[in-house]
Inverse folding.
């Protein structure tokens, strides 16, 4: 399956469900997968945003600096040559973090014209009303009304955003729930297992709200692991489900 088709298929799932599944099929430590909660959707009506990361370090807050936008145009040219949907992932590096305004609707129009669907940043953005009709998605700490002269420091190098490292080429999935990084090597496998996880979660929630004992709930959830073929891949990360409470009792008594 082509990367574009994988990205389109991933957009059918919410980020939380993908994170749950990814946690169980990929060796990447969990804390390296998801961004902190302060990186949130500012354009929730646009739905999930999925694309290949294109990274940038940008200073929009340091007083008295001269504008340097050469790397901006170089990155746009690189995006123009790409064939897959893109997410611009920006680490602000200025002297005043709370004053970092990474972009507005003018830049959003430009980025969208070269295949970029949205921005993910630990800075802020402005002109949200102008982004919606483009449509261009924004995931950030919030809004900021203005910026100092913009200085593009680095492009296509690893960046720190939301407490994780993102490199150009990583798959980004962002939604109303937050932002995750999907290792490219596991993306197609993720598509295979996520529907099973969704089915398991639906049935497990039905069990967990029933008026039966906690021990019986745990046994039934364990049966659902087996039903959906999840017992092997999930055992390490979900031991609180996958070991039978009755077996534990037998172990203690034996």
């Amino acid at each position: 399956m082509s990367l574009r088709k994988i990205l389109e298929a991933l957009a059918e799932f919410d980020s939380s469900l993908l994170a749950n599944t990814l946690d169980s099929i990929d060796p990447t430590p969990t804390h390296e997968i998801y961004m902190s909660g302060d990186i949130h959707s500012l354009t929730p009506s646009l739905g999930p945003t999925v694309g290949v990361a294109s990274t940038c370090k940008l200073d929009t807050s340091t007083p008295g600096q001269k504008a340097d936008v050469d790397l901006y145009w170089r990155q746009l040219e690189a995006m123009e040559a790409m064939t897959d949907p893109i997410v611009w992932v920006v680490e602000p590096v200025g002297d005043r973090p709370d004053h970092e305004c990474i972009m507005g609707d003018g830049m959003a129009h430009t980025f969208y014209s070269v295949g970029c669907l949205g921005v993910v940043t630990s800075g802020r953005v402005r002109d949200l009303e102008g982004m919606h009709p483009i449509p261009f998605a924004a995931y950030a700490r919030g809004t900021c009304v203005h910026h100092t002269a913009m200085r593009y420091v680095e492009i296509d190098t690893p960046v720190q955003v939301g407490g994780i490292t993102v490199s150009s080429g990583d798959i980004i999935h962002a939604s109303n729930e937050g932002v995750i990084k999907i290792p490219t090597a596991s993306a197609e496998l993720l598509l295979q297992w996520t529907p099973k996880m969704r089915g398991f979660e639906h049935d497990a929630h039905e069990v967990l709200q029933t008026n039966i004992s906690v021990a019986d709930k745990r046994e039934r959830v364990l049966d659902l692991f087996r039903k959906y073929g999840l017992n092997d891949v999930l055992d390490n990360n979900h031991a609180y489900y996958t070991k039978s409470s009755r077996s534990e009792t037998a172990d203690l008594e034996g």
Notes: Residues 187-208 form the longest helix (22 residues). The mean pLDDT is 91. The chain has two domains: 29-182, 189-247.
